[in-house]
Amino acid sequence: MKKRGKKIVFTNGCFDILHAGHVRYLAAAEAEGDILVVGLNSDKSVKSIKGSKRPIIKQEQRAEVLAALKSIDYVIIFNEPDPFKLICQIKPDVLVKGADWEEKDIIGADIVKKNGGRIVRVDIVQDISTSDIIQRIKEQGRNNFHK
Fold it and tell me: 27 is in which domain, residue-wise?
């Protein structure tokens, strides 16, 4: 793809319960180049990062939902806790992460920059997160149970 002059953008995440914050983030990532590749943490990987009760949605379904978004060109499921190997294989021109990550802490940033690429940190939508959604669902369940 690079041979055709296309700029490859890479980002990654769990994308457990897809929400507006994810959609805005992915649209911002897409705007940074021509082809957006999303590394999706596998179920095993999510459990190692988020704990035994996650993910809520299985990897195949998360991948299907992501692949249906017009902003995304490719979804690749990976088993490792981080996407370092995938970034080394893809060699993206742009690596996108949320602004909650300091550039020095972004996995693969050094590889991308060494290859002449750049790092983009996208602002996070406040008050929208999968963890917050899960908490609200739990609270709703408790409130409904006690009625």
Answer: 2-145
How many structural domains does the chain have? Answer: 1
- Whether the CB-CB separation of 80 and 45 falls below 8 Å is answered with yes
Alpha-carbon span 144 to 31, nearest angstrom: 42
Cis peptide before 55 (omega within 30 of 0): yes
Q: Residue 96 belongs to what H/E stretch?
A: strand 94-98
Task: Sort strands 8-13 and 94-98 into parallel, antiparallel or unpaired.
Answer: parallel
The two three-digit tokens of residue 109, written as one number: 């940033």
In angstroms, the Cα distances linking 123 to 21, 22, 26, 34, 57 are: 10, 11, 11, 20, 25
Tell me the pLDDT of the chain (147 aa) as tens digits: 565 789 999 999 999 999 999 999 999 999 999 999 999 999 999 999 999 999 999 999 999 999 999 999 999 999 999 999 999 999 999 999 999 999 999 999 999 999 999 999 999 887 777 778 888 888 887 777 555
The CATH number linked to 95 is 3.40.50.620
Phi-psi map region of 7: left, alpha, beta (phi>0 left; psi -120 to 50 alpha): beta
